[in-house]
Amino acid sequence: MNTRNVPRRGPGTLRQALAGPRYLLTSWPWRSLAYTLTTLVVGGVLFFVALPVYAPWTVFVAMVGQGHSTGELTVTFLSGLFTVVFFAPLVAIPLGALERRRLHLVMPDENSSGHRAPPAGLWGWARTRYSEAATWREVAYAVVMFPIFGLAFLVVVALATATIVLAISPLLLFNENEPAISMGWTTLTTPLEAMPYALVSPLTAALLLYACGLMSYGHGVIARALLVGPPKEELRAELDQVTESRARLVNAFEYERRRIERDLHDGAQQRLVALSMDLGMARIDLEEGSPADQRVVAAQAKADELIDELRELVRGIHPRVLTDRGLHDALQELADHCPVPVTVETAIPNRLPPHVEGTAYFVVAEALTNVYKHAGATAVTVRAHLAPGDLRALGAAQETTTAILTVEVTDNGVGGADQRKGSGLTGLSDRVAVMGGTMGLTSPEGGPTRIRVELPCGPIPTNPTP
Question: Which residue range forms the structural domain that includes residue 362?
Answer without folding.
Answer: 324-456
